Amino acid sequence: MSDNELWAFGGYDGTTLIREINVFDLSVDPIVLKRTFTIPTTHRYWRSGTSIHVRKDLNKLFVLGGETGGTVDLPVLIVNTNTGTVSTGPNTVKRNCNAVMIDNEIWLLGGSNSTTATIALDTIQKYNVITNTLTTESVKLAPPRGSNGSTVIGNLIYMMGGYTDYDSRHSGTRVPDKGRIVSFNTITKEFKPLVSIGRPPDYLHASQIYSLQTVNGDLYWLDGSNFYKGVLF
Q1: Is it true that the peptide bond before 143 is cis, omega within 30 degrees of 0?
Q2: Phi, psi of 57, rounded to the nearest 5 degrees
Q3: Rounded to an integer, what distance in angstroms lies between the CA atom of residue 64 and that of residue 210?
Q4: Is 42 inside a domain boundary?
């Protein structure tokens, strides 16, 4: 979302992948389609776990991760919110990956790099929206995870849920303690297991129908049919 606009990227209509960016006007009721732009061949497939971030001061949206009909080795899409012009950045090789933005950097946590049966990744990467560069941290996720929920407060990234491996698009081996929140300090590069907050959804996927968010120290998450709240601090 950006200034009363909802931007929809790609998708799948049941037959073909969609190469459009649709911009909807939220200032009217009912909402209406305001603009449509064409996406290059590096379009996104809706099941991919694409992560989208906005920088209003740069007039840009950044789309990371994804899949185009079996290919996951995709560049970052950089969309000018004024003109709809699309440029590209480095390849992220990610799907089922959650990402959060801190200042000028988007942090990518785990995920996978295959559209078939795969082990989740243990990598932590960060993409700099100013320099258009991608770097990989030396510290690793333990255990590896994908399809997890992530949110951020200050320099702390909070993660919960996810899979360590996949036997299909939506199932596999869950992380050992899917109800425990784990924090990652982006300054000290340290992980800290926090309190377990009960039975969460089997996996949290903030890029599809699941969401993990913090509001005033409270943690909220969705599993597609139920709404949960836990006290974070």
Answers
A1: yes
A2: -70, -25
A3: 18
A4: yes
Residue 204 lies in a domain: no
Closest CA to 129 of 95, 90, 158, 156: 90
User: Tokens 């606009």 map to which residue?
Assistant: 5
Query: Which residues on adjacent β-strands are paired with residue 100?
Result: 107
185: tokens are 């300090």
Q: What is the number of domains present in the chain? A: 1
Rounded to 5 degrees, φ, ψ at 39 are -90, 140
Distance CA 111, CA 68 (A): 16
Dig out the tokens for 95 from the structure.
């799907």
Q: Is the pTM of this model over 0.85?
A: no
Query: Rounded distance, CA 201 to CA 24, Å?
Result: 31
How far apart are the two ends of the chain, measured CA to CA in Å?
28
Domain annotation covers residue 71: yes
User: Does some domain include residue 189?
Assistant: no
Q: Which domain covers residue 56, as residue numbers?
A: 1-95
Instruction: List the pLDDT tens digit at each of the 233 positions of the chain.
Output: 667 888 887 777 777 777 788 889 999 989 999 988 887 665 555 444 567 788 889 999 888 877 666 666 678 888 888 888 888 888 876 777 778 899 999 998 888 776 555 778 888 999 999 999 999 999 998 888 877 778 888 899 888 777 777 665 556 677 776 667 788 999 999 998 876 655 544 444 433 334 556 666 666 655 544 445 554 44
Task: Return the exposure string of 189-212: e unless at least 16 CB atoms fall within 10 Å of the residue's CB, then b.
Answer: eeeeeeeebeebbbbbbbbbebbb
